[in-house]
Amino acid sequence: MNAVQKITYYDKETGKVSWEEKRPEALYEAALDSQIESNVVGLYPDYLFQEIDGFGCAMTETACYLLSKMTPEIRKEALERWFGDIGVNAKFVRIHIDSCDYSLEEYQAVKDPLKDPVLTTFSISRDKKHIIPVVKEAMELSKEPVSILLSPWSPPVQWKTPPEIKKNDAAVYGGKESSVDLTKPNRCFGGRLKPEYYASWAKYLVKFIQAYLAEGLNVTMLSIQNEANAVTSWDSCVWTGEEEREFLEGHLYPAMKEAGLDKKIGLYIWDHNKERMVEHIDEVMKGEAADMIEGFAYHWYTGDHFEALSLLGGRYPDKVLMHSESCGLHIPGKVIAFDLPREEWAGLPPEVQELLKLTPLEVDFQDAKNYAHDIIGDINHGMNRWIDWNMIVDRTGGPRHVPGGFAAPMIAEEDGSYTCTVSYEYIRQIAQTIRPGARRMGISVYGHEVEGTAVKNPDGTVGIVLLNQQKSQLPVALRMQGYLWKITLPGETLSTVVLCGDNE
């Protein structure tokens, strides 16, 4: 059986990415003088688990605006990096309903629903300016249909309660405490949808889905609320599990059923960080709601919590587990999310002050390692789908309608070109190894120094992802069905190995 090992190197001094390809020899273990028992990674292709549907990214107004400013040739090349077969081969796209933090300004499809309660002025004309044209271009580059996930950040401001400022971890979202008028409703800073407008909001969401379908876009998923527990300085709305269940059972699902969308659009709940998802999802899944929900969406901003995925997968084995957002919480080329004068650094949390000791290139590399670590952990605990946040941002981490900015795997440059970061290269390498339709297979790793996952691809190849975050190189013996492949994982590298038949 042939093996191909691809190693990705990153130079933290220059930011350059390079690759090395090796072809380790297959050794028949029974013919060796002695058995190898140390530094072994065991592979078990007869133990198969969940299907991996594929990877994707978010096409926000920001991302699509930046892409629309490029020449057609450069834009196509950038899109092929994500949607082409030799790129990430993205099968999923996430798009916000109305404005989010990565919109150029606040907006909603009905300017004032109190004056227009039947939503006759509903329009997605804003989306037709940047988002829809660029997404259609992306769809044309994929050999297979790309599924769209729609996610709302906030209902129309007129239907909300005033903000309820909670002490969310500023370090998690990259934000600073802000003063806000607590007497008036706001698209930003949380607040809740008033129950008397649940039916209207359900109708609004149905109209949005129908409008996108009418544009020929393959909408297959809707999450009920982005970050249902986040009170952020950008578009946001808070839902308890009980409130979300009431809205789903009494209003959203009936409205979708009436519109004939209940069998076409999968509904997803939570769409927030893993550390609270078990409690919230258990609350929503009581009663009839369980049969209305296709799966659970989640983000990565509060740590690993891989066990939460295993718990939910064990209790609800028929539901899809979908990673729906992740990004580095800093401006590209910077180490934090805000450009602060040095005299203000002393007031930042200790964990942020530690980041300030790193160079921007070291922070970029940490992003890439975080991506690989999180994808490996999620897959090993049941994940089916993986969607990143912005496909591309500029050097300010935007543009967006609120201060600050975050990183992305691709950066739009001022001259109309783009740069792929080491995070992009890690994501692409993993996506090239784990193809859509792959099944997670059994793997056992000898120690914490090596992080790994393995899949059996639809073409019969075995794909293995191995992350070495240690500074020193690590020897590894891959063992599968009586064969061994001795490989070396250089320090601080991502390696992928593909095992295939002798004629492949």
UniProtKB/TrEMBL annotation:
PANTHER family: GLUCOSYLCERAMIDASE, LYSOSOMAL ACID GLUCOSYLCERAMIDASE. One of its GO terms (biological process) is glucosylceramide catabolic process. Keywords: Glycosidase, Hydrolase, Signal. It holds the Pfam family Glyco_hydro_30. Belongs to the glycosyl hydrolase 30 family. Signal peptide: none annotated. Residues 52-327, 365-413 form the Glycosyl hydrolase family 30 TIM-barrel domain. InterPro entries: GH, GH30_C, Glyco_hydro_30, Glyco_hydro_30_TIM-barrel, Glyco_hydro_b. One of its GO terms (molecular function) is glucosylceramidase activity. Residues 437-497 form the Glycosyl hydrolase family 30 beta sandwich domain. The keyword Signal applies. This is Glycoside hydrolase. GO terms for cellular component: membrane. The keyword Chaperone does not apply.
